[in-house]
Amino acid sequence: MAAARILILGGGFGGAFAARRLSALLGERADITLLDRKNYFVFQPLVPEIAGGIVNVLDAVTPLRHMLPRVRVRTGLVRAIDLDARRVQVVQGEMGDLVDLEADHLVIALGQVVDLGRFPGMSEHAFTVKAAADAFALRNHIIDCLERASITDDPDERRGLLTFVVVGAGLSGVEVMGEIQELLRRGLRYYPGIAAGETRLVQVEFQDRILPELSAELADYALGLLRRRGVEFRLGRGVRSAAAGAFELDDGSLIDTRTIVATIGNAPLPLLRDLPLRLERGRVAVTPDLRVEGRADVWCLGDAAHVPLDDGRPAPPTAQAAVQQARLLADNVAAVLDGRPPAPFAFRSRGTLASLGGRRAVARVGRLRLSGFPAWLLWRLAYLAMLPAWITRLRVAIDQVLDLFLPRNIVQTAEPALAATRFQRHRAGDVVVRSGQLGDGVHLVLSGVYEAMAADGGGRVYGPGDHFGDDAIVEHRAHHRPIRARTDAVCFVLARGDYERIAAALVDGAVAPPADSDEARPRL
Amino acid sequence: MAAARILILGGGFGGAFAARRLSALLGERADITLLDRKNYFVFQPLVPEIAGGIVNVLDAVTPLRHMLPRVRVRTGLVRAIDLDARRVQVVQGEMGDLVDLEADHLVIALGQVVDLGRFPGMSEHAFTVKAAADAFALRNHIIDCLERASITDDPDERRGLLTFVVVGAGLSGVEVMGEIQELLRRGLRYYPGIAAGETRLVQVEFQDRILPELSAELADYALGLLRRRGVEFRLGRGVRSAAAGAFELDDGSLIDTRTIVATIGNAPLPLLRDLPLRLERGRVAVTPDLRVEGRADVWCLGDAAHVPLDDGRPAPPTAQAAVQQARLLADNVAAVLDGRPPAPFAFRSRGTLASLGGRRAVARVGRLRLSGFPAWLLWRLAYLAMLPAWITRLRVAIDQVLDLFLPRNIVQTAEPALAATRFQRHRAGDVVVRSGQLGDGVHLVLSGVYEAMAADGGGRVYGPGDHFGDDAIVEHRAHHRPIRARTDAVCFVLARGDYERIAAALVDGAVAPPADSDEARPRL
Lengths: 524, 524
Fold this sequence. Notes:
- The structure is a homodimer of 524-residue chains.
- The first copy, chain A, has 524 residues and is α/β, with parallel strands linked by helices.
- Chain A is built from 16 helices and 34 strands.
- Chain A has a five-stranded parallel sheet with strand order 5-2-1-9-22, covered by helices on one side. In chain A, strands 11-18-12-13-14 form a five-stranded parallel sheet. Chain A has a four-stranded antiparallel sheet with strand order 27-34-29-32.
- In chain A, strand 12 (163-167), helix 8 (171-187) and strand 13 form a beta-alpha-beta unit.
- The two termini of chain A are 45 Å apart.
- At the A-B interface, helix 3, strand 4, strand 8, strand 10 and helix 5 of A face helix 3, strand 4, strand 8, strand 10 and helix 5 of B.
């Protein structure tokens, strides 16, 4: 008998653990391929510690090829799925090659995506903390804010740079806030010009309580602790919009900030919405044995799946549930291959843990409720034990132990501001670039209206499709006139260094960028 | 008496060590500012180990604020220097604020830059290994090449992805090659589809020997060792050009490759060339007491300086010499402030070490010459001892010890291909995008001519200022027709994900990018 071809889409908790167990159960009887856009598995509960700078980004993740030695790992992006043929179109490589993969059993473990499109400016300006790389970028950004606040003379800019907003106060939001608070507390000793009282931390939550995953008592403990550490809570408040320098709540109040972290907005993959399958609350409806309704050979698990439990409620979208589903899914695929009947999913909660940073946590394990240092110790040990490879466990443990004794590392490895293209939203009246500034690049207007303000009150106007900021770069000088948004507006910014090189080639009289231009980043 | 204002430009070996000693010598008597574009000190000899993935990028560098607690550290970029007024114009912050800093004593420690402008395509396509971030990017790129080679069906592309070229075979070039070879050797066990013999390593050196810093005997040992490990040497050969998929030697021969590492091209900062001071061989001519010729209060040291020695030759451009100069410079500034005469510089060589990767090295220490494992052990211990902070020492030592026992980490944290804008050079005839590929983005032609090839042999032509690749993105489909360079040509590529968002706003009928688009990277 030919080996069964099993194709697993997604290398998170659901996909990676299913692949590992399938490989153990089936050995040579299966030809297993796992597709993910990255070549590593992220242990999600550690992501806040990456953002805080406790755990090194490379240490916190496990190479999928190391974790799954007998599984074929491919990096690529799913573009289309044909459920009937169990065929997947994949985008791979630098130039976007399209490749078709076919399987006898297809496992959909693609999780959910973050969709902030409902809130103007949020997709342009909010950091997310799903991926390890996002968390690392957030850490670098926070240190960049401290660097910039320490040298600016403008009190408004300083206030914005030292204000940090986290949207959402579930597990992920609270853990990220705890780590940001700790990073600031320990990092600020290196910035003698910034007083501890100058930083402002705001947590916004639509519900009127935090940590709905835990009891009201534990949530109150967490709330009190974070408040004592200076975190402001805006409960019962939602997001209205975000912009380059501000965050707006749904009551219209504004917070000046350069750092917005979004832990909200989980949504189904657009790809899944277009498939001939039923979604329930944004998740793929599956039968209790984890097969997509009406399909014998298409499976789905983890955050992407709506898995019915005995009590009629769906399984929670947690790592814990995904790992339990992965185990069952592998057993069920093996059963089907053997002609045995598959079993239904039953969820056994092993508890919930939330770190608050600074060696404090809250925990519920069975009937036990813990808070403070004991909960934190439990949290550390439980997650260390759950890591998928002993090498990762060792590296993470070393990072965590070193962090107990060493000062926090405030190295900012990336230069985020000048290096890359970006999208920006401005509110009517916002100043985009002041006179005397070199500017960050060429701005291409996507929506709304910007205006360059002349001394006589007149000024030039830029609408969608127009661009500004190029003249200063071409002439290698600072801006003569401030530019501001006349209406709410969105623009695309091509970084100054990139445009310097383009202008040197295409614009008569443009000054060539110096060879040591910060922005020159060679790439293949 | 008011504290003397000392402004140090550059936080490399010269600047950081001078700042540290000045701070120790002068205490409250000096108000010391150090300006660098990054907030950390890079221990240059470890950079190849970052490229190889032995040492974690965050572990290998030391925060300047931690290293220099009593020095005011500022991040920013030098834009102009007024030597007479000892005034420096600095670019800082996201929007390019211009700030003037003034000092009583100005210390220029800006090192050199890499200028590859003489070789067409090299600034577009070569990696450098000066900065820690460059080395980290190179490591991620090499792993990306393995990922892509393991899934492509195209033998030409596979060969290019598995060929690695290092230009220059001095200390830095040889050490980087040693680490790349070791990274491949240990990383390939995770890529069962790639045979060890499929990788090709080529080292190109203009001189007819390697490691001119060491004796011919030690260089021969290194050459033999690297050759036995499969490195091809092209000695007595220089660079002619580079392109998106190829490297061209000065004899016209071509090497298909996606990875070119340049360890050549050191050049003076353009900024220094424009100042009223004398350059000698591209370095600032200084008097033996390390003052810029004709200036009483402007100092220069390290790679930026041409420091005359007793024997008439200049001090070597090494970390060792920079550290010795930093010590003398601090003593001399203190002497001048006290009205004492400054002392001349005398260089005492403490030896030269070159790692070859895989626990082998060559070393010269006084009259002692070592090779192999003992030299490697000496290399490791000597550099550990020289690290500027015991925290860095501890973190690096842990990384190095773990690497002896653990498999090499092959996590690829960045997705380099799709994420960012880039510049590309193509040779006449090179295919830029094939039909059936989604393409990497919109290409704006900067020089030369590209053509879209129609089935009937005709085709559309794109010259400087024209762009192509947008139609496929707007219509969310693969390219219908291949596009190739008709002449040697250079283009700027705006990444597909960025253009999807731009087109959705500005182009009628354009398809909005999916919310989970890989390329959507929020930033502030």
